[in-house]
Amino acid sequence: MDPRTTPAFLRGMTQSRSVTRRDAFRLAGLSAAGLALSACGVQGRKAAPPKKDAVADYWASKQKNGTLRFANWPLYIDKDGKKYPSLELFTADTGIKVTYAEAIQEMPVFFGKIQPQLAAGNDIGHDLMVMTNSIQLNRAIQLGYLVPLDHSRLPNFAANAGARFKNPVWDPGNAYTVPWAGGITGIAYNPEYVDEVTSIEDLWNPKYKGKVGMMSDTQEVANFGMFALGVDPDTSTEADWRRAGDRLRRQRDAGLVRKYYENDYIEALVRGDVWITMAWSGDVFQQVAEGKDLRFVVPAEGGTIWTDNLCIPKTAQNPVDALTLMDYVYQPKIAAMLVEYINYIAPVPATKDILAAKAAGEKGEDKEFLEQVATSPMIYPSDADMAKLRSYTVLSTAQEKVFEGIFQPITQG
Amino acid sequence: MSASGPRSAGRTRPRGRWTDRLLRIYVWLVLAWLFLPIAVMIVFGFNDTQSKSNVSWQGFTLKWWGRLDEYPDLVVAVRNSLLIALVSVAVTTVLGTLMGLALGRHRFRGQGATNLAMFAAISSPELVMGASLLSLFISAGVETGFATVVIAHVLFSLSFVAITVRARVVGMDASIEEAARDLGATPWTTFWRVTFPMILPGVVAGALLAFALSIDDFVITQFTSGATQTFPLWIWGATRIGMPPQVNIIGTLIFAVGVAVAVLNAVTARRRGT
Amino acid sequence: MKRLTPYLLVLPGGLWLAIFMVVPMVFMASVSTQEGDVVNGFAQTFNVGVYGEVLGQYGTQFLRSASYGLAATAVSLLLAYPVAYWIAFRGGARKSTYLLLVLLPFFVSFVLRTVSWKFLLADDGLLLAPLKSAGLLPGDFHVLQTTAAVIGGLVYNYLPFMILPIYVALERVDPRTVEAARDLYASRRGAFTRIVLPLSLPGVFAGVLMTFVPMTADYVNAAILGGPENTMIGNIIQTEYLVNNDYPTAAALSFTLMAAMLVGIFAYARALGTENVLEAAAR
């Protein structure tokens, strides 16, 4: 409740008082005093870049501490009431206690929060965090905010990670990150209102005016703009971006786009605010599993594949414990527990057979659900779909400015 | 026409004219409009939803009431909100009461400037206040977090407390204090035994205002919070990923406490006859 | 000692206001003319041109915010006046109960209230779905992500700021003056326009001030209820500061907003024929 409306306050407000113009000048004088203080600029956040042999140097002196502070996105780990079964197994097997925080809701906002602390070398309160491959992750790597990983301590990752989850373009050799889960950005639609969709052109279909959802993330929309033009984001140029920007601008100006959504597009789709929308595979899978009649397609022109990645901030207090968890979740049985709950693409392909085997042993709804997970193209995409998928464009700092300058006004203006 | 009977102030003509009846219906419609979203919020705290987002009615359940602490971060956010409110109210109440006393009792140079600054603090948009504070903090290299949120909350509630206390001080009979002094009381004793008890209702009202302001603040908090989460900030984040029913319940609880305090306040005020 | 007392009393709070309200404004002005980026830092270059740039780029959003603020203020006034009037003159012994009823919804968090509206107004939601299935509305009719939704949200969230000051002003009108006018053969309408309305104007002025300023600078309603064509200047400032970390642009925008508001407030006070704004709210 806002107290500006309470009688006691209003009574106070309505007593006469005297303020003169001279008083205003006095305040202004005070401001001038502050001016002297404010002459210097806002400091940057660049940290020293990592040296050669950084891996050995870093890990040589580090020890296991028995605790771990893990920051993740909401609803992004298996959960049973208040417990996290996979983390409990981890604690039982390794003796490391985990403090789990759902601290990340949006990449730019999260990064904006931790960046000053990382630059200053202060503890950010997390030893392990999950970052989407994004402008922010690129920046974190470039600025030396992440600990280089000691792959000699990641045998399960080496043995069990799917080929397509190793050695991504934006982090060669998985030097700083390993995937937690991946997803596809494609098109979701409600078949009650929308005819079968195969092409990205349907997002520009005037029939669905005001019922089209797009994403507010610039890299997401940029990719779709480029797919619509037949451009491969991996090899795209500034001229391609501008054309893609024009294409997206026309879509917006024609009144087709209802809103540029964050993760809330899925609610809008379920509530009926949009009929057809850019969507992430896992969100749609969960709604379908709950019985909603929704479809998900990777458009013929292309779709985006992304991963959310485990990484260790350079200010971590318990890096060895963090590295231990990174490897632990690459055991197929643990990875299967995670994918069963998360419903995004598991980086461990062996989970498919584990879930199928588990489904055979269950009955009723559980069996049905597990079968759905094990056979869904949203979780285990077909090779045909995989061939159509591309990553976000990798940008240098200079390119980033141009890129944001083109796409930001579309989603944020 | 003018042959009026004994008619006291506050009584008006007998109602019943059609315009009055229309107006009455209108007022109740506005009230219904005001309460509609609140009712929805309360009802959906009892929704037996299976999904991660609470959007369609699935049947009645009380189960969420037993699972309020299911989201540890939500618990932390609510606790932060309460802590921030308590700390900032303590600071605000002391500073604001002193200011209110000075403004209500004394005349001094700079009084006008103080009034203007207080008016500016009340009437400037929260957005601008938050933005300027953030500019200060980033320029000075201050890490935003719990402390900076408290600073901001004290800033915007200070004037409210000062003004409420001043209203009380102005309405107070100064001769009682004089009498105490004439009877040999020291200024210190006079303050604690005479002045303070008299202005106490104003101080309490001011503190309650400051608490209400702090616990619900979103805009300035968003600018100054850094990595610290509060309840309103958590809701804002949750609007992007789906809100669990626990949010509705915590909202309902805060609503209930607010209503209880307001009703209590109204009843005691009526009894005191003020 | 005694002469020093008021200064000592004011000092702590006064310093707080000075350090955390006045000084930050100066820093905001300073940040606005710096150049650089968040990674490498910003340096003071007195780049005054940024003001021209942001006005050119975001002029639409400035104008939109102002027009939304004006429209929402006007709607609030129309909605609020009859309510305040009825409570003040027809509320009888239960005046304070009615006032409490008006205020109760505002014990629920601002963001939560707005989210509740998003939920209520959904295309297939509680309000629209029945009307659509009854055939009263076309299937693709929607309220969310329209100008009406944003203005409606603004009006809803700030209505008490309008009702309360008007009520306080009306409450001070002695019903006997109205009686007197009626006794002197004024019509009902005449008694209202000649007596009640003028006496309530200070409340109206205060209410307009207390709603217009926060409504114009709001970004929560546009973010939750609005669409791409409803972005207000507050949304831009919030994004530039907190998401893009483009501090100079953000600071220049907020500084411009503040300056525009100050000019507006003073012009408004002048138009009322008062020397300063305080008195407008006070009388």
Short description:
The complex is a heterotrimer of chains A (413), B (274) and C (283). Chain B has 274 residues and is mainly α.
Count of discrete domains of chain B: 2
The coarse silhouette of chain C is: globular
Please identify the top-level CATH class of the largest domain in chain B.
Answer: Mainly Alpha
Helix content of chain C: over 70%
Number of helices of chain B: 10
The unreliable regions of chain C are 274-283
Query: What is the largest interface, and how many residues per chain?
Result: B-C, 93 and 86 residues
Helicity of chain B, in percent?
A: over 70%
User: Averaging pLDDT over every residue of chain C, what do you get?
Assistant: 89
Helix tally of chain C equals 12
Element pattern of chain B in H and E? HHHHHHHHHH
Distance between the termini of chain C: 35 Å
Rg estimate of chain B, integer Å: 24 Å
Q: In the CATH hierarchy, what is the architecture of the largest domain in chain B at level 2?
A: Orthogonal Bundle
- The CATH topology of chain C is given as MetI-like fold
Largest pleated sheet of chain B? none
Instruction: Give me the count of strands of chain C.
Output: 2
Gross morphology of chain B is globular
Describe the structure using short key phrases.
heterotrimer, A: 413 residues, alpha/beta, D-Maltodextrin-Binding Protein, domain 2, 2 domains, ten-stranded mixed β-sheet, C: mainly alpha, MetI-like fold, two-stranded antiparallel sheet, 12 helices, 2 strands, 73% helix, 3% strand, disordered C terminus
